Amino acid sequence: MKLIAIDMDGTLAGEQKIRQEQLETLQNAVGDRFLVTMVTKRTAAEIKNDLQRAISFPIIASNGATIYAPDGHLLSGTPIDRDRAEEIIDYALAHRHFVEVMTRKGAVSPENSEEIFKRELTDKKRANPALDTTQFWQRAAERIAHVHLVPIKHIKQLIKTTSIFRILVVSCFPEVLDRFRERFAAYNPVSSLISVESASIAFISNRIDKGAAVRILAKKYRIQPEDVFAIGASNYEWSDFRRAGVKTAADAPSLIKDLHWLIEKAGTSSEPIVLQNQV
Q1: pTM for the full model?
Q2: pLDDT of residue 273
Q3: 181 and 121, same domain (yes or no)
Q4: Same-domain status, 114 and 73
């Protein structure tokens, strides 16, 4: 068996939700010869919500910090250093910013999260009365719907007793995210800080990335590195995969149409495959 790892955010979904026909194309193309895994910055719960259906593939979520089997159980997780996690979360709670903490049992946030978002939106609207905050509130509501809301004291207890795989901070003020970036950049300015977009900033362990997670999954299924083929949507993912020592391809928007060709190349090529219109 061979493994094909596909970056879901840019390759399959971009900024939109993944489409049913894309999954069906994957399933029909790979058959029993290949194991396909989706690699994403999002959580497994968000992916399942987008798909509105059962998933028959393993999922590498949170940029590699968590790996889930097709039945949904956690195959592997790389936690953030406990002291580091505690400092980031304490800072977010002390300054009343929305924070989402990914644990083995799922994502949790403070029970006052809706209040936090509403306060930020009020402040944003006061500074710019003409601003339409509808879209941000919709995203905030979706964020809250994906998490378990718990008392702040429960979150502080989790830090001491439970593995923390990802910390997500959301704000409609870029300067808030800038403060997090500056304050915690000293921990690991390259890989601890994994994304800054759509008014969010996420932290994972500096011991994991997408490429390392693909290698971990391959090992779980007893697949040799030379039988792993990874497809990234940008040079960022491509470099992660290359460092992991697996065959790689830079992505093109028409990737799914070319999947049969890619599967053939995955079994024969020993060099990176560059598609037309490389990102």
Answers
A1: 0.81
A2: 41
A3: yes
A4: no
